[in-house]
Amino acid sequence: MLSKSKEAYTKPKKNNIEKNNTKSNELKADKERKELEDEDKRKYIAFLQNEKLHILSNMDALKRSIADIETQEEEISRELELEKALLSAEYESESLKLTSDETEKISIQIRINKLEQEMAEDTSIQANLQAEAKFRVEKVQQLCIQLGNELKNCSNESKQQLLTDKLHVQQNALETEKKTFEDLEFQHLEEEASKLATREELQKCLSELSHKIEVRKVQLNNLESQRNDAKTSAMKESKALSVKRLRAIDDELQNLTKSSIENGTENSEEKRSPSREDFDRISKVTHNSPIVNSQGSLGRKTIESLKEIERNRQLHLAKQGSQVISEERRRVEELKRRVQDEVRSQWEERKLNCASFNSVESGEESSNYSTGPTERARRKYVKMNAREMGAAIVDETRVLGCNLITIITSNKFYMIKDGKRTSSIEGERVSTSSIGITDGDRSRPLSQSSSEVESIGSLQTVKHRDKTKLQRPLTRYLPIKSESLDLRHHIETAGHQLSLISDVIIDTTTCSGYLSKMSKKFHHWNKRWFIFDRKRKTLSYYSDNSSKKTRGLIYFQSIEEVYVDHMNTVRSPQPSLTFIIKTSTRTYHLMAPSSEAMRVWVDVVFTGAEGYHEFDHQV
């Protein structure tokens, strides 16, 4: 009885020990599995960080190369604009000379026609006069012959004396009529010779003018061909630089695609191998445990449960990964579709604007050479779309990891190729940071810009100002296109005391002075010498007041708005002295040396804002 009770007492004790061992083994297996998962996460995070640094370094190199190419494009466009201005001025002067020569030619031709008409009338009048004089001479001559015959036949002396006197009188009359006839004929010959000489001189002048007009037409054709050649060569160079830039982006994307594919395969193998190691360690722990040797059924149950847990974990991860991949693929497709729709709509709008611009330019090309689409300009509607698209894609790449890098990079490569195809058709420039960094945040990493990209509801195009018209300051005047405007008198009547403002020089047609201009690329403030010329209808700026090196040129037709920057849209050393000139191609942020000079410049420039059509629309 004692032995039986002792055995009954020791049996539940062994069962408790076995249960405790099983629990401890399960806890050890869970702990090791968590450690393996944490180690996998750390490796994965380290890999993503290295990949991020590699992508950022490639992006910096690509940005530098694109910045160099864009600098070359800007230099080419600046040289083209300067050459355009020179050729346009020469073309305009030659056109004016040609017009004056043609007018003079027409007047000379009119004089020749009038002279020939007078000669014809004088000839007819002189012919009538000479016929009458000749008739009188013949009549007197016949009378003299008749008196001579009567005198021969007459025998009476008194009658002979009378006939002799009559004959003498008639002979004197005959001499007088002959002299009158000869004088009339001589006078007619003299007048005719004088008019013939005048006509010869006029015809000589006419031939010289005709020759001069032909020479001027040849010169104008040469200037036109030079202008077209310059435009063609600049377009070719700009296109070559654009192709070079897009090729650099294409090569970089291909490299990213290849590296992402390789890294994705390696990472998948690395992710599978820890799973195998995890399972092997769990199996090793369970097989090496004493439970297997003592209680086979319980050990097998533990192993089966651990295997089931591992299978469920792998299925859950695979399901979650496929869901994430499908979700991200759907988001990328949606982003791509939105970008393509936006680019297509912008392209249609720009094509209409280009068509209307070309129709206007064909009528005004000889007098004014607008900056137009060279570039450049130009105006860049693909910029924001490509930027936001690249930001979203890089952000998704960072979130998904290496297994999703292949899909997103391939989609990004396809979308950038689509954007490149569109930009090659329209000749516009893609943004320097087309992989996710805006102009205002070029120096920020992708991790800081991802939240901003996600906050963007829909892709928006670049706008000059997003403020409402009610927030814009009112303007006192409308643009003045009259060439007889006295600019200095106009500014003085506006209430400005120009004698007290030494920073601005104004005469009847020009206004000049130093202004600080914010650069387009690096947003630095540079001091420039500005000249507002109403004769040339341009606002140009130079490096200094020697006016030798032109840094930029703004035509009156492209100036749309001029206003003081009350909203402080840009970072300025002195916001109260900052004003804005908005053109059809870009927005210029300028800073005057004093508040009086700023107000003078705003009123001066607005007199030439011929692109301001808001009042016309309201009318």
Automatic annotation (TrEMBL):
Q: Where is the composition biased (Basic and acidic residues)?
A: 268-283
Q: Spans of biased composition, class Polar residues? A: 257-266, 285-297
Note the SMART domains from the entry. Answer: PH (SM00233)
Q: Where is this region: Disordered?
A: 1-38, 257-299, 425-464
Q: Which UniProt keywords apply?
A: Coiled coil
Matching entries from PROSITE patterns are given as: PH_DOMAIN (PS50003)
Q: Which InterPro entries match?
A: PH-like_domain, PH_domain
According to the entry, every stretch annotated as the PH domain falls at 508-610
Question: According to the UniProt entry, which residue ranges have a biased composition of type Low complexity?
Answer: 445-460
Q: Which residues form a coiled coil?
A: 112-157, 318-345
Protein name as it appears in the record: PH domain-containing protein
